[in-house]
Design a protein that fits this description.
It contains 3 helices and no strands. The longest helix has 35 residues. The mean pLDDT is 78.
Length: 78
C-alpha cells in the first residue's frame, strides 16, 4: 500500500464518519431523552475521532511533502 492509497483511505474514512455524524445529529431531534443522551455521547466520540484522523492526515501530507523535496530525492535514489 503506497502513501497515496493510505491518504485516500483516510480521506474516505473521515468523509464516512462526517456523514454518519451529520445523520446522527439530525436523528437526535427524533429521539427520546435516553436515546438522545446515548447519541450525544456517540457524537462526541465521532467528533474527537474525526479530529484525530484529520491530524493524522495532515501529518501524512506534511511528511509526503518533505519526502518529495529535492534534498530527499538523492536518498531515495540510492
Amino acid at each position: 500500500m503506497n502513501i497515496y492509497t493510505v491518504r485516500d483511505n483516510l480521506k474516505n474514512t473521515i468523509a464516512g464518519k462526517e456523514n454518519h455524524l451529520a445523520d446522527l445529529r439530525y436523528q437526535t431531534t427524533l429521539m427520546t431523552r435516553g436515546e438522545e443522551m446515548a447519541a450525544k455521547a456517540t457524537i462526541k466520540f465521532l467528533e474527537i475521532n474525526i479530529d484525530e484522523l484529520k491530524r493524522i492526515l495532515a501529518r501524512s501530507e506534511e511528511h509526503t511533502s518533505e519526502l518529495q523535496s529535492p534534498m530527499y530525492l538523492v536518498c531515495r535514489l540510492l
